[in-house]
Amino acid sequence: MISYKQILDWFLGTLFPPLCVGCGFVLGDDKKYKCFCKECFNSIKLQNRFVCVFCDSRSTAGKTCPFCIRTSHLDQLLTAAEYGGVVRRAVKETKYRYIKNIAEDLSGLFGKFIAKQARAGKLQLTGGEVIIPVPLNRLRFNKRGFNQAQVFAVSAGAITGLAVADEVIERKFGGSPQADIKVKSERLKNAEGKYRCAKPELVKGKTIWLVDDVATTGSTLEDCARALKEAGASYVVGLAFAKGKLNKNRIKKLE
Ligand SMILES: [Zn+2]
Ligand SMILES: [Zn+2]
Fold first, then answer.
1. 192 Cα–ligand 1 center, Å
2. How far, in Å, from the CA of 19 to the mean position of ligand 1?
3. pTM to 2 decimals?
4. Strand runs (DSSP E) across the chain, as ranges?
5. Cα 247 to averaged position of ligand 2 atoms, centre (Å)
6. Which ligand is nearest to the CA of 74?
7. Is 10 exposed, middle or buried (0-12, 13-18, 19+ CB in 10 A)?
8. How much distance in Å is there from the Cα of 155 to the middle of ligand 2?
9. Across all residues in the chain, what is the average pLDDT?
10. What's the gap in Å between 12 CA and the centre of ligand 1?
11. If one looks up domain 45-254 in CATH, what number appears?
């Protein structure tokens, strides 16, 4: 029996056929990906050269350089895809639609990238690392309330066998408004950054894989890394699908 939903899906599919995020052509029925044609998907290049996220100097494994690490908490950042072409369009698209499907298509590629870096010795994988997705922030919050970072984190977990720990990092002002904190020293502590670690027992003494979909200035990853280090994490490596580029005016608006 054909359900009402099936009829509605067919109807919507006819009126609004799924288009490739990269080139805009209608996707055929045999499509392998939900949001990309094969050509566009295959054109996505994975990175093998990395830089210090804070100063852009060359760094074999994306480690924060000796100069920048003095004032930072994020020890390393590996971004999977080169920004440009299909990736640039997909990242823009994720801001307003098809969000979950795009992340699901790309997460397999992300998993492959992680496995490759671990084999190359650029990403330490002993089995004791903990994967933590960056929580949704207000700016990237979409109507569905869906966290892309979580999809990439799950893919990294699936390929490595590492556990994905949820709800470890939370936004401070969501959890405990300043007005609720009576002790002055606690209030000051609360104002230091936007994030805090809600489950220190899971991060103490551990290497953390901090996963996000797009790293732009690195400031969100750095703020989360600070929260994790304050809770006792020994090493924090950021893993993002793409390193986005925003123009300076837009960054000002976002931050
Ligand atoms: Zn295409
Ligand atoms: Zn540096």
1. 44
2. 8
3. 0.82
4. 76-81, 130-133, 169-171, 195-197, 207-215, 235-243
5. 21
6. 2
7. exposed
8. 29
9. 84
10. 21
11. 3.40.50.2020
Q: Which residue has the tokens 């809770």?
A: 231
> 75: CA distance to ligand 2 center in Å?
10
Confidence of residue 88 (pLDDT cuts 50, 70, 90): confident
Q: What digits encode the pLDDT tens for the residues 13-34?
A: 667 778 898 998 888 776 789 8
Q: How far is the CA of 24 from the centre of ligand 1 (A)?
A: 6
How far is the C-alpha of 232 from the C-alpha of 238, rounded, in Å? 17
> Which sequence spans correspond to the domains of the chain?
1-43, 45-254
- Alpha-carbon distance 112 to 120, whole Å? 12
Cα pseudo-dihedral 135, 141, 147, 153, rounded to 10: -50
CA of 237 to the centre of ligand 1 (A): 32
Mean pLDDT within 192-199: 87
